[in-house]
Fold this sequence. Notes:
Layout: E1 2-7, E2 21-26, E3 29-33, H1 39-43, E4 54-56, H2 62-65, H3 68-81, E5 88-92, H4 97-104, E6 110-114, E7 120-123, E8 126-132, E9 140-146, E10 149-153, H5 161-166, E11 172-176, H6 184-190, H7 195-205, E12 209-213, H8 221-229, E13 235-238, E14 244-246
Parallel strand pairs: 3-4, 4-5, 5-6, 10-11, 11-12, 12-13
Antiparallel strand pairs: 1-2, 1-14, 2-3, 7-8, 8-9, 9-10
Helix pairs in contact: 7-8
Amino acid sequence: MLLRIIGYWAPYPRAGQACPGYLVSSGDSHLLLDCGHGVCSQLARWLPAEKLGAVVITHFHPDHYIDLFAIRHIIRAAMFTGTRQKPLPVYMPTEPDYHYQSFAAMEKELQVLPLHDNGNFTVGPMQVKAFPVDHPIPAWGVKVDCQNRSLVYTSDTSYHQQLVEQIQGTDLLLCEASLRLADGAVAAQLGHMTTADAGRLAREGGAKTLLATHFWPEYELEVLQEEIEQEYNGKIIMADQDLTVPI
Length: 247
Ligand SMILES: [Zn+2]
Ligand SMILES: [Zn+2]
């Protein structure tokens, strides 16, 4: 598998960049995890969206789904010109219902499917499993397995014990680290993790590599990395524009 960082800022991107979007590929099979502000434009630099095999929207905060509206139009155009025949499968939470229903109504272009607890689906050789996480609105983490390698994406969540179990021994933990070490109380309240939480999660879950993401654009990433290093002495990668990581 190959992970390409399409966007990693939240809740708004730095100039010319994007909010969360992660392209996971195995051969010609491509899965997009989340689709925030700017993802459509950044993705186009690597892959025509009509070549996507599926999209997962982990929750309905705009930094994770808003560019799905644009992807829908790319699919519509591709079906019109004949470069794509079938609607794009998009897995998403069923709540809030009005979001789910509004995308479900775009059935010509999007095949909307609900995320279920431990529900599995495949994209080419990649097996995908969703699990609930802890955020102010229903949100899902995602595990992708392929050829005895695994990736776990936390989406947005506070630190909690079940998360440690979900990530056990994963090869790559794609983990939000939204807030500074000193902001633990705020992080728990907002349903996010601090740098220290991310490091602790990677350590307790035995992740082989921690790829930290979901950064506020005003932070200095060197400072965030130093804080993560205080909790985790394994391999740490900070999300970066155009970063590609083999798994
Ligand atoms: Zn969120
Ligand atoms: Zn977010």
